[in-house]
Design a protein that fits this description.
Elements (H helix, E strand, L loop, with lengths): L3 E5 L3 H13 L3 E5 L2 H9 L6 E5 L8 H9 L4 E4 L5 H9 L2
Parallel strand pairs: 1-2, 1-3, 3-4
Length: 95
């Protein structure tokens, strides 16, 4: 069984590039493009081995998705263009 990775990224070009490379490396990917859709997937209890999470999403920001992801035992890697210290500290404090 392949490892499943949830790619939560609102830019379709970036999401497609990430998914293409992960699939070439043997992973199964599922892409979602906004925070609300991601929250629905997480809430359904689907089994993912990892989530790649953009912090700046439409509908619901990535920070609000960290807790439900980790509560469902899904490890999270944050992808973001945000470089401010407050965002980095907030992300690190969230785990």
């Amino acid at each position: 069984m392949k490892d499943r990775i949830l790619v939560i990224e609102d830019d379709a070009d970036i999401s497609n590039l990430i998914c293409m490379n992960l699939e070439a490396a043997g992973y199964e990917t599922e892409a979602v493009y906004d925070g609300e859709e991601a929250a629905e997937r997480i809430g359904k209890g689907e089994d993912y081995d990892l989530a790649l999470l953009d912090l700046m999403l439409p509908g619901r920001d990535g920070f609000s998705l960290v807790e439900p992801l980790t509560r469902n035992r899904i490890p999270v890697l944050c992808l973001t263009a945000r470089g401010d210290v407050d965002s980095k500290v907030r992300g690190l404090k969230m785990g």
